[in-house]
User: What shape does this take?
Amino acid sequence: GRIGRERDYERKRAQYAARGIPEYWIVDPQEQLIAIFRLESGQYVEVGIFQGTQAMQSPTFPLLNLTAGQVFAGEF
Assistant: This one.
């Protein structure tokens, strides 16, 4: 719901940045998307938003070979 989305998209992002977590993913089953952000100069910048058959790109895990669809289908 709205409260969970606000928590994931705003509050957690600020908390993770303050702790220096290098990469932050939002897995949104409602929208069937995965958003990946990387920490740059204390702020998260969007790496990409992935859906369906789009291969995800992770700076932290460059050998990752999954699509968003595989994650939601549990095919990994």
Remarks:
- The first strand starts at residue 23 and ends at 28.
- The chain is about 30% helix and 30% strand.
- The longest helix spans residues 2-18.
